[in-house]
Amino acid sequence: MNRITVLGQKIKKEKIEAFLIKGTENVSYLSHYWIEGEILLSSRDKFFITTSLFAEEAKSRLNGWQIVIQKDSLEKTISEICKKLRGKRVGFEASHFSFAEYERLRKIKEVEWVPFSGLIENQRAIKDVGELTCIEEALKVTRAAFAYLENELETGVTEKDISRKAIYFLRENADEEAFPPIVLFGERTSLPHGKPSQKKLEKGELVLLDLGARVGGYCSDLTRTIFLAGIKEKWRQIYHLIVKAQKEVIKTLKPGISCSDIDRMIREKIEGAGYGRNFIHGSGHGVGLAVHELPSIASRSKDILKAGMVFTLEPGIYLEGEGGVRVEEMIVVSEEGGRVLNG
Amino acid sequence: MNRITVLGQKIKKEKIEAFLIKGTENVSYLSHYWIEGEILLSSRDKFFITTSLFAEEAKSRLNGWQIVIQKDSLEKTISEICKKLRGKRVGFEASHFSFAEYERLRKIKEVEWVPFSGLIENQRAIKDVGELTCIEEALKVTRAAFAYLENELETGVTEKDISRKAIYFLRENADEEAFPPIVLFGERTSLPHGKPSQKKLEKGELVLLDLGARVGGYCSDLTRTIFLAGIKEKWRQIYHLIVKAQKEVIKTLKPGISCSDIDRMIREKIEGAGYGRNFIHGSGHGVGLAVHELPSIASRSKDILKAGMVFTLEPGIYLEGEGGVRVEEMIVVSEEGGRVLNG
Prior knowledge:
Shape of chain A: elongated
Helix content of chain A: 25-40%
Largest sheet of chain A: 6 strands, mixed
Oligomer: homodimer
Number of helices of chain A: 10
Number of domains of chain A: 2
Largest interface: A-B, 45 and 45 residues
CATH superfamily of the largest domain in chain A: Creatinase/methionine aminopeptidase superfamily
Number of strands of chain A: 19
Order of helices and strands of chain A: HEHEEHEHEHEHHHEEEEEEHHEEEEEEE
CATH architecture of the largest domain in chain A: Alpha-Beta Complex
Strand content of chain A: 15-25%
CATH topology of the largest domain in chain A: Creatine Amidinohydrolase
Structural class of chain A: alpha+beta
Distance between the termini of chain A: 26 Å
């Protein structure tokens, strides 16, 4: 069933007459195209609202949509469209409109504004075959990037050098990088989201690469910790601990288990080895049109695993001032269980 | 006077006891550092709230701040801090908190939440010498990138090839690209914000490059339309029309004139030549920590030019299905008038 039909059924159930959508990936998900704009969906019509900057592209690429070119403010444009919906309840994406934007929407008195969160995000969490194909292609390019970059890891090269080469490779072989690559050497590997610097690679240092590609809108997200000659034995032990925990938990995955339980299982294994306070982030996150989306694999997550979900599992151990190890894989869950996506 | 002192005086005037800041560039502006987090500023304290992901970096780099590591939700963390402010009015950035986030803040009953917009954005619009130095350095790298890329414009090269080379160059010579480069060939130059594609360069085609670099957090933003051999005479005429309009308006700039007037002046010159409906965007925008910030040089802008403002002027003429020409310069205004920033 098509995406808009599925959403339409949800909207009907929520007893709203129309739904105003602004989240970048949500707009892209419903329009199957990546262009700046908002969507207003009612039971009869589907409007794509954009500015004159994108008018030519929208008209030629968005077939089946009523294209509305915003002349004045967004509110005035929406107010015009809403005249047909007088007195009706209209939903809006509460997580994607700022409070200031809501205050302006509220002045459109024709309709009653009703906040909703996560309606499309939950729908996006389950991937279809076409989406999975894009993700697998993005993974293939990311794996090729690791192979290429490993050869570039010579003493004296900087984190910024490798990061720049990563982007060049990803843009040559995929649409673009899914996010700015994380490239860290030595003790800087203890910063889970560190920014590449002018730090030069020295002998025996840890190397952490966290990369993703984008293909047809869809992202990949993988992390590798690479050991050069002369690495301390401690880091090998930490590496094996992480990979073992990851593998064991992947075996237990199936639809119906809670994502907070997945996080707990990985966390307990790392705590058992005495590194509990060194695993300073969640265990993973969904990946799709956004690099971070549902489900959230974290202690406070309320998500339940469903067939078709695609997410990362990325245990990491960070020793402040010394270094860190993280290994991130992407997993897909089906009725048969979980499997690592190879791409 | 330091940035926080200036903001502190504004806060006092607004009769609020504290101010909660979330806008990425606003947080960076006040902390002089680029890290994910929120700031809560009161007359006595300055708190930097971040997650465990950035704890090590925050503690080592943010001197003079009380670093608060968010354990549970942001709301719980803020609620803890707000206990000291019981019964007081606390401002929040209405344009940077989503409606859903506001609904969660509102549950913190200790304080009264008061929405504010543009408080720090207006302060950021006036640049000091240090900021101007970064912008000029970013401009220098961008101009060097144009010279380098012009040499790469051979028949058969794709828009994506040139865009990838642009990023590589900008990351080699500056911190990073300020935004994904716009590279368009031939009739695709009629898309003001088109995305680089696999389109190959052919003889006699228009080339549009819109690039920016980032240095020390600060952006540059320049556009060049390049004519290869064999270009149609019509495009040369359009080019000269645009550059002439731009130059004449720059001469009239001085503190005190309204930004909507600047837009009107450029627009009238283009309308006068019969291309009014082909100039489909605003005339410019402020540039600083963000590529698009205050002042807005557009017909509906309420901004007034002040000494120290840095902004683009970017007239463009777009003929649907044929091509387009845009020339974007960056301008700084002082008591002496406006001048093109050379970098």
